[in-house]
């Protein structure tokens, strides 16, 4: 059984990573994951290098996205995006040397129009493995000895899958690991992640770890992907929002232990409230309530009465309202009859 992987000198144990997710993987979520345990490496949201470097404090809140990063426990990966080598290397050096990030990850997977179309960054760059290599090389040099990594998709479209070429460019340029999300950019989040295509990347790599990503929903699936596919590690995004204790469950399974039982609905409600307090600490009440609505929606997915809860929680606008809806509408265990 795979129990750890190395990204440069950083040991990732277990080899289960929490995915970067813009708007979600902020300080509060990362802190919650740490309290629950089980994630071998936690990532920030992606940070726009251009906004950070050129706009500074005025920059669309980019420095804000690094809130907490300096003081958080390690290991911690910070993800950045852009297409300009100078801008990326300037931020990468800052992250490595001032912020002491454990890993600097480059985003070559984002298909959102604001990034891929209007900024010619993220998944747009998959069309040009050479350019990817150049960017990785510049960043790797700028942040050494802190490792630089890359996160990609399979390619732009089903007809132009080129993850092998991109991965070789990443490794050749000094990248220390590569994560492959098993969808094309065109798919956005539709269809299913193709793990056979992810697996093809492994034989093209000489030494660096391959991390597979996409559609892992349960601890059993996580272990199955690690066993069945030639990946060194796995990364999980959305399922960790719905069930943040998933990482702990996976870690227990990988250690050969019987996982803790699924938290009761009451325990899930308490976790949601703990998460809320962390969000308030980070963002203040006004923004915190607005932001927490989207997390609360995740907690209610697939739970009895979830639709009613989502309907109500999506409209709260104060801390009091939030707490009332959680107290009155969040599903709790039905008393035994
Ligand atoms: C709301 C949301 C935000 C995301 N933001 C990022 C991001 O900032 N950087 C990134 O590389 N991928 C981002 N992703 C993609 C995830 O990291 C991951 O690759 C994808 O969700 C597939 O994994 P999953 O099926 O485990 O969720 C985002 C995904 C979602 C759903």
Q: Could you write a compact summary of the structure shown?
A:
The chain is an alpha/beta fold and 337 residues long. It has helices at residues 27-36, 49-55, 62-65, 85-97, 113-116, 129-143, 163-172, 195-202, 219-228, 238-242, 246-254, 265-283, 285-300, 306-313, 319-329; strands at 5-7, 10-12, 16-18, 41-48, 76-81, 103-108, 148-153, 178-181, 210-213, 233-236.
Largest β-sheet summary: 8 strands, parallel, barrel
Sequence of strands across the biggest β-sheet: 3-4-5-6-7-8-9-10
Number of helices: 15
Order of helices and strands: EEEHEHHEHEHHEHEHEHEHHHHHH
Q: Would you identify the CATH H-level superfamily of the largest domain?
A: Aldolase class I
Structural class: alpha/beta
Q: Write the CATH architecture name of the largest domain.
A: Alpha-Beta Barrel
Provide the domain count: 2
Small-molecule binders: flavin mononucleotide
**Contiguous uncertain segments of 5+ residues:** none
Cα-to-Cα separation, first versus last residue = 43 Å
What is the C-level CATH assignment of the largest domain? Alpha Beta
The amount of helix comes to 40-55%
